[in-house]
Amino acid sequence: MTDNASSGVTVIALTHDLARKRSVVTMVWDEDSEKKVGLPVPFGCSLGDLQSEAEKALRALSAEIATISVSTPK
Question: How many Å separate Cα 56 from the centre of its chain?
Fold first, then answer.
């Protein structure tokens, strides 16, 4: 396993679902394009706010998974 502490992610898509009134940002890891994540951002997020909103969403996910438990099917 490599140390990716200095690597980053790049936003590759911002999708607005008008019917559900939700927006999702999709990001891909710079060092491993197989790693992708899609996270909700405020509905109607503008391109001007995209970087900060994507960063907030990623940080929130990081905090959430820091203590998450993993289970296997029973």
Answer: 9
